[in-house]
């Protein structure tokens, strides 16, 4: 265990800054594990990525079919990317001693399934909601040197749209990982996906960020805004080159990770109210071809947008301080806020620009499956 355990995060007094402090040493960089030579940050990063080529198990060409939501009618486009998968038994063995990564073992009617989770401290574990669906029993464990910790977990709450579940492990507080920020990630940045197999041992896959603020379509047809799109078909935490967690990969839209910044908000909402409370203004929008903005094609009667005076045909160009270039931008800006938040919506109507005050409502469950609705 670390000599100076991290202080658990106080959700009640500071939910909006969750993960911003106090988690700086929860993650052990692979080069800092026992048996690894000391090196500078730049040398360590260079050595890490150079080693990937040497330990490559192979390259898999994967064709992904995504929905291109660039107009009122969705069309399909095929995106072909090269997915580099790397594995190393030595690296996997070292990862067993990584404190913040947790194996989540779920017993359901079909048997036993295992996936990856991360510890946030304060007895809380993040994992995929799809992993724990229908769970009769959940065990969380990690292999730390000669000690094999296994504790019973319960579900505090889930966000089905984001494919996230918050677990509670009252018997043991797993040391937390280091949390980063997706705002510091750029297209082309190298990232690492950490998964855990049935043997409860962590394995790594390496890839790149293909798109930021991506608009993903989940398997059930729901829309996931503001995602990090990668060339990795994995699940579990997504790490940057320093080892900080910047996202959590979803099973509902393979290759996409919900930014850790959004995860923090969801965790705080589940902690305080027992459920996620996604912001919502009640509009259906489409892209404005050839121009920036999101064109309003429908307004939900009685919704915050209706009450504020937003009309069909308005071109939304900003939400608060966030510039809206497309429908994806608008949905991502809304997703980063909470129900009850006041915000100014900038729009153009009849050649005139104006800003209307809107108080965000809570997104109804049915709206997630109704297309580009925010």
From TrEMBL:
The keyword Transcription does not apply. InterPro entries: Chloro_Bact_Ser_Proteases (IPR051201), PDZ (IPR001478), PDZ_sf (IPR036034), Peptidase_S1_PA (IPR009003), Peptidase_S1_PA_chymotrypsin (IPR043504), Peptidase_S1C (IPR001940). GO terms for molecular function: serine-type endopeptidase activity. Residues 1-43 are annotated as: Disordered. The keyword Protease applies. This is Unannotated protein. Pfam families: PDZ_2 (PF13180), Trypsin_2 (PF13365). Belongs to the peptidase S1C family. Keywords: Hydrolase, Protease. One of its GO terms (biological process) is proteolysis. Residues 265-351 form the PDZ domain. It comes from freshwater metagenome. The lineage of its organism: unclassified sequences, metagenomes, ecological metagenomes.
């Amino acid at each position: 265990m670390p000599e100076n355990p991290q202080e658990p995060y106080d959700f009640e007094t500071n939910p909006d800054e969750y993960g911003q402090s106090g988690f700086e040493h929860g993650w052990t960089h692979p080069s800092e594990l026992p048996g690894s030579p000391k090196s500078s940050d730049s040398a360590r990063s260079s050595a890490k990525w150079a080693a990937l080529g040497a330990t490559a198990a192979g390259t898999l060409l994967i064709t992904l079919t995504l929905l291109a939501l660039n107009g009122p009618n969705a069309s399909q486009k095929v995106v072909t990317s090269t997915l580099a998968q790397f594995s190393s038994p030595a690296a996997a063995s070292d990862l067993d001693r990584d404190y913040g990564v947790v194996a989540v073992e779920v017993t359901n009617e079909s048997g036993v399934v295992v996936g990856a989770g991360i510890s946030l401290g304060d007895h809380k574990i993040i994992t995929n909601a799809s992993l724990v669906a229908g769970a009769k029993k959940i065990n969380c464990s990690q292999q730390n040197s000669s000690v094999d910790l296994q504790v019973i977990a319960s579900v505090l709450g889930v966000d089905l749209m984001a494919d996230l579940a918050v677990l509670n492990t009252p018997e043991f507080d797993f040391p937390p990982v280091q949390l980063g920020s997706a705002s510091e990630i750029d297209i082309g940045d190298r990232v690492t996906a950490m998964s855990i197999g049935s043997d409860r041992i962590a394995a790594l896959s390496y890839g790149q960020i293909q798109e930021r603020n991506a608009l993903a379509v989940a398997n059930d047809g729901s829309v996931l805004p503001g995602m990090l799109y990668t060339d990795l078909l994995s699940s579990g935490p997504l790490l940057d080159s320093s080892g900080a967690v910047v996202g959590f990969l979803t099973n509902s839209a393979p290759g996409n990770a919900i930014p850790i910044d959004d995860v923090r908000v969801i965790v705080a909402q589940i902690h305080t109210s027992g459920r996620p409370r996604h912001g919502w203004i009640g509009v259906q929008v489409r892209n404005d071809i050839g121009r920036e903005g999101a064109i309003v094609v429908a307004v939900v009667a009685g919704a915050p947008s209706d009450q504020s005076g937003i009309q069909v045909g308005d071109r939304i160009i900003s939400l608060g301080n966030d510039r809206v270039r497309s429908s994806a931008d608008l949905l991502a800006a809304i997703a980063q806020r909470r129900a009850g938040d006041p915000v100014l919506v900038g729009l153009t109507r009849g050649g005139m620009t104006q800003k209307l005050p809107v108080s965000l409502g809570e997104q109804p469950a049915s709206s997630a499956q109704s297309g580009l609705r925010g």
